[in-house]
Give the backbone structure.
Amino acid sequence: MFKKILIANRGEIAVRIIRACREMGIKTVAVFSEPDREALHTQLADEAVCIGSAKACDSYNNMANIITAAVETEAEAIHPGFGFLSENSTFAAMCEECHIKFIGPSPSVIDLLGNKSNARTMMIQAKVPVIPGSNGTVRDLDEAYNVAESLGYPVMVKASAGGGGKGIRIVRTKEEMKSAYESAKSETKAAFGDDTMYMEKMVEHARHIEVQILGDEHGNVIHLGERDCSIQRKNQKVLEEAPSPAISEDIRKKMCAAAVRAAKAAGYQSAGTIEFLYDKSGRFYFMEMNTRIQVEHPVTEMITGVDIVKEQIRIAAGKKLSIKQKDVEIRGHAIECRINAENPKKNFAPCPGTIKDLILPTGGLGLRVDTAVYEDYVIPPFYDSMIAKVIVHGKDRKEAIAKMKRALYEFNLSGIDTNIEFQDRILHDRDYLKGEFDTSFLERKLELWKRE
């Protein structure tokens, strides 16, 4: 097992990883940008190294500085968390070259699955259902028109190297294609340095269901059930729950089996997520695979009792999975609300600033808060606006919803705007309570709530 791990991230996920390492008896190294000098992760780690200025490109995305920090502190492994360099195959390869273990899949697997078009081809070969779409990449606008005509509108133009909702456009008519195609190419070029595109048929009124998998280097691959991530705004997840209230046990078995096939086909080693769209007719389709820990991993931990971060670390150290598929048991229901420093009444504008009078809802059975904020902490304007994740677990969905309502009621802070009231409104919505929602839920509700 590793003696020391460097965490190449910030915020609540860095704190989450540091805590797992401490429980495993592993020393930790935090890296930080200048604005994060007083951040919680720098205080909890055994060592902390400044790696650059505020801009992510100068710090958390600065591969050379992070590798140098790992070498100088004699860290044996690097955990990338999510975002930043977590799915960067170049960084994973640099770690290999410097004899530092990257806690994640190999560079070749990241490349294979990170390219959405190539991943789609591989899933077809593995007999995993995929959304009807282009045969490989779409090279130019003329080909985009032809593919759209063959699929039938509406379609989705998607970045092969995309992620986080970037490089995606919905095209409902031929007249919209030119603008959508060109803007998606431009956005993905700026975000990922790659403007390769592909296309899929738009599956409307579908749910976003993902399956958590774990694979080790000994050929073992298991799943930890599914999560429903359909409550989204502009392709960004807002609230997640597990298991999904929409799917039957028969569909669950088929979907999870398909996810395991997908991971085995890729030779996957680490924690990963297979994402599916689930339509009203009961069919599911592969969308993509995320080759990292997910923001919403705690809901799966709550219903299975499996510490996914610890499993990641064990896998990277060459250990076998600590559990077998027959040992995985889904118990109860879990919900996660992402608490962001933003103002929903002002088009969700980010709200950096100083946190005052902080009260976290940390009491009670089946309640967990993952955060890196504290009273008088200054939220910098340079990074993602998420400041906390509230996760609850109940014996069933009804109890989980009641616990989340109570937790949000107790969550109190001043000094900045947050989306706490917005999350509470979702939890009180009649359709949400009945489990009747899809990925267009918030788009429809926001228009309705504006008129009220």
Remarks:
- Residues 233 and 446 are 10 Å apart (CA to CA).
